[in-house]
Structure prediction request, 561 residues.
Amino acid sequence: MVSFAALVGGAFLYNVYLSFNSWQGIGTPEWVGLENYQNLIQDRVFWVSFLHAFQFIFAMSIAPTAIGILIAALIYDFIARYFGNAISTFLRISLYVPQIIALPIVGMLWAWMLSPNIGVVNTILREIGLGSLALNWLGEARTAMFALSIMMIWIQVGYTIVIFVSGMSRLDPYLDEAAQLDGATWFQRFRIVTIPQLYPEIAVVLLTTTVAALKVFGPVYVMTNGGPGDATQVPAYFSYFHFFSTTRVGYGAAIATVLALLLTALAIGLLRLQRKMGLMR
Amino acid sequence: MRTQVKRKKGFAPYLVLGSLITMALVWLFPMFIAFINAFKTPQEFVQNGVLAIPNEWDFSKFGKFWSEVDFTKKLMNSVQVSLLVALIAVFLSFLTAYAIGIGRVKGRTWILGFFMVAFTIPQEALIYPLYSISKTLSLYDNIWSIIIIFGVLSTGFGTYLLSSVMSTFPDELLEAARIDGASPWRILRSIVLPLLRPTLFVLATMFFIFTWNEFLIPLVMLPSNDNQTVTLAMAVTTGQFTSDSTARAAAALIGFMPSVIFFLIFQRTLMRGITMGAVK
Prediction:
């Protein structure tokens, strides 16, 4: 535990210290105070990278949560009930597989599927007569974020489904039955009975996936290097780029510090919110 | 009333079943398409395209790829790193969680709060300090550097999870043991450890697969070819295969197969771990 505190705390504080310095990685760091942060505020790419991180919150957190809770309810209410556990397990495993593969490898697979001429995505689009939609997905600024977002939804849905299915097994079945006797349709019961009971799970899922969304690095590294231009630039890749490519270490450290503070604030905020919702129930 | 309900049951479930199975097949499609193209000859790929099932199954790419990348070495590196991290982290988090969850160390709410915050700190905010420290300690480009780092990081997570599991332990059980004169060490070994063994196993499989999939820290810490893990090697060698599409499919397949096989074997255990992590 001491080693954990030393490693995380020590390294983080050292990173904060570096963010107040100008350093090329060799020689002695030179204290420059807030200069790195002043430059950050004026750096367009910095703002763009955080804008993209927030777009990933939609693709990795909000959309998968919404899809996941619906699919989980369908699996729990229909599949498990009428077709048995084997099929429901098969569905959960199939949808979960993308989660278990390392992100850079997923990225490599998708980059191959999305390649403009021989890629399977464009091949299918041409086959079904939508050849005009067969774009250079990762090579063009206006489609690159969209393509990455679709991939992220594909990756994340499995996680949310597994959490929500397990959450549903602790719900009170009598509430659902009572609503059924009152003539509520399945969707009404889903909306009014199931979802409110799942608030704790929803809070946890939103928290963990939002944190993951703001940390995205591997797919961007493998698929786009933040490009074309800055079209898919994200904070994690942006700081890595300054650490190891331009070796403006202090600048990279400043980006990483901002990201860390944002994540911590977000986590504390969401935990507070969860506690409040817990009290309201 | 009864017939009405029955009629509803008749049709809707099949519609749901059909849509969900379609969805599952769409989800598995990327793996499937990588699989069929990995075994296709380049000529057949040019002729019949990416969607065709191969007429003749070509295994030669794997041997070539395996020896070119020295995949055995990467596999051994990954297994060594992930296994050691899992063992070290489970051992350490068991001991610290025992102190927090059952020993009731002072200030444990603060300790747990600290862990909670520490998880949200991105690796990017740690990587440069770790990089320069490992250089000073001459651990740079040595797989022990990442074994230590991930061992410690996973211990944080494990401690957090285990101590919340342990704090739900029935007090009477531990009290009875204490009255019988059992030392804290004896309680740890004879009561807590046997009861927690399944949970510890869940943690170990999770740490193994998480460490296997790690990318940023290995990328920075292990520049030389001989030290790379599977995940790292696959990601940085992609560029070499851009010319031949079937070779890229084969590389992707070799890259994700170990994780998928591991997942299929430990599926139950992993699912339990994932839901356990979310509940508390």
User: Anything to note?
Assistant: DSSP finds 13 helices and two strands in chain A.
